[in-house]
Design a protein that fits this description.
The protein is α+β, with helices and mostly antiparallel strands. It has 9 helices and 12 strands.
């Protein structure tokens, strides 16, 4: 039981020791409760045998000791050392960085020997020490802070934009490891207000466009409408939809769909279609825009293969919706896309795209199985 209590106290210590400054603060409290006396570096020390003392440096290091003998040169020292710090990312002064005219990042510096990949795609909080103006420039006020909730994330680049991510990747600390805090425009606030005022709606979607306000990630509907299975292709992209689960369990993406899966696209459309089949209601706002780079592709064998894979993803999600979810109205959506491809083969100069896409869509529909 004694061991269990000790382990529990140690776990709480680790949990509360969010930074070296927090660890030293907790250590001071423990030492004070156990009769240790704090010493000051720039003052004379009057030590006595049996005395218990500690001294801090920069509030990030602490040395505690007990004087058990006058014959130190004979009895020697018994020393235990430990780190109070750990690898982290320190936020620099004036840290705000605007990215793509849409996102706010923080400029940071990596401290210590961090395993960088373990910091990616996980909720991160902010804690540490801040220095405030004091009565004297030589004596600023220092405060420990802890936001007590995750407020940022260091996201991986989507595999669409880094195909070699699984082949080994070297991370640039000043480019790849800057934490994302939030959006600069008011879209996120609109989303929150929408869900608060419309409790029966659980899906919010809006338009995406390149920051040059000319190119688009994909063609989307210009107006405002409810999201249905009939218009889901014109109102949903993976970049711009939000879901309010109200604390309920998340539904999972189909791992067979999307880049890296057996069928190379369609995961976000299938996800929303599944939510609609479960009774979720959604609203689309064509006047709200989230800016995202519109990557352009030149003609190549790789482009043909990509169009084919995307076509397979669409065919697979069509089969899921029509055959397995029994939404037979979605057959009209699939037929309209196939007719467009057939027309493109006859009339368009971009025949390679339509050839690859129609073959992929037919193959995906035939091959997909739950």
């Amino acid at each position: 039981m004694v061991r269990i209590n000790f382990v529990n106290k140690f776990i709480h210590f680790l949990y509360d020791g969010l930074s070296s400054f927090h660890s030293i603060g907790i250590s001071k409290e423990i030492l004070d409760k156990n009769g240790f006396e704090e010493l000051v570096l720039n003052q004379r020390w009057n030590l006595r045998v049996g005395g218990k003392y500690y001294v801090t440096k920069n509030l990030s290091a602490i040395v505690a000791f007990v004087v058990n003998s006058e014959g130190i040169e004979r009895d020697g020292f018994r020393i235990i050392g430990s780190h109070s710090d750990s690898p982290t990312f320190s936020i620099k002064p004036n840290a705000e960085i605007e990215a793509e005219k849409s996102y706010l990042k923080l400029n940071t510096e990596c401290y210590g020997g961090a395993i960088l990949s373990t910091w990616l795609d996980r909720p991160l909080g902010i804690a540490g020490r801040v220095v405030l103006k004091g009565d004297s420039i030589l004596k600023p006020n220092e405060r420990l802070i802890d936001f007590k909730k995750p407020i940022c994330i260091i996201p991986n680049l989507a595999i669409h934009l880094n195909r070699s991510i699984n082949d080994g990747h070297s991370y640039n600390k000043q480019k790849d490891m800057l934490p994302l805090v939030g959006m600069l425009n008011d879209t996120l606030e609109k989303v929150i207000n929408f869900f608060n005022k419309n409790k029966d709606y659980k899906i919010y979607s809006c338009k995406t466009m390149d920051s040059n306000k000319v190119d688009a990630f994909k063609k989307m509907y210009d107006g405002t409408c409810d999201i249905t299975s009939s218009n889901v292709l014109d109102t949903i992209t993976s970049i711009t939809f939000f879901i309010d689960f109200e604390g309920k369990d998340y539904t999972r993406f189909d791992e067979k769909l999307g880049v890296g899966g057996e069928f190379g696209a369609g995961e976000e459309i299938d996800y929303v279609l599944n939510l609609l089949s479960l009774g979720f209601k959604g609203k689309y706002f064509g006047n709200d825009i989230i800016y995202h780079p519109a990557k352009k592709h030149s003609k190549s064998k790789e482009k043909y293969q990509k169009d084919y894979n995307y076509g397979r993803g669409f065919g697979a999600l069509c089969k899921k919706e029509i055959v397995y979810r029994k939404n037979y109205k979605f057959a009209k959506v699939m037929v309209s896309k196939l007719v467009r491809n057939i027309g493109g083969l006859i009339l368009s100069s971009n025949r390679d795209y339509h050839s690859a896409t129609i073959k992929g869509r037919i193959n995906g529909f035939r091959q997909y199985k739950l």
